[in-house]
Amino acid sequence: MANVTVYLKCDRNVEVRSEDVFLSDVGSLRCIDSVIAARLKALKVHHFSSGDTKRCVISSLYLVKLMEETCPNITVQIVGEPDVLVEQISVDKHKGWQQWAKCALVCLVSFFGTAFTIMAYHNDVGINDVFTEIYRMVMDREPQGLNVLEVSYSIGLAAGIILFFNHVGVRRLTKDPTPIEVAMRNYEEDVDKALIATAGREGKTEQGGSGEE
Q: What secondary structure letter does DSSP report for 86?
């Protein structure tokens, strides 16, 4: 039988719900032979037992080894990540009161935490004194209660936050990712790289061995 080339593209981080991890879970492959492709996609590459940790790092070279053992007449070309971080998760299909309580708690902490930060910053820079001095210079008299500077500043602050975070409720102003999304993606990439590097240094990268904490 003629030699067949298989292209393997692995993801850096994948999540699975079952204890068995298959090749189709950790990445995608391309092969001109549909029979070989289907056989390789169903190849089991790891198993999470009850006593193991719920996270492991699998080397792409280990995947190539399993693929060549399953189909000897193939040549594997790796076009994705050299290592894959696999994590077993448990997701409740029905959201209960615990999920809603957590969401409400996060919203409250974010709201009051942000409000406290803004007030502490304004108090630190003395924004009231600045507004009072500007009002005195322009109007030549002392401000009496709420004035136009404070109202305009409050409206501008809210509008600036909305434009910066690129969201109005659930609607996105532009198609660009928000600063929070960019920061979260960078954080996730840094965490994945750190976990993979730690597993490699400790010799816990999947080469037919056990998982990684």
A: E
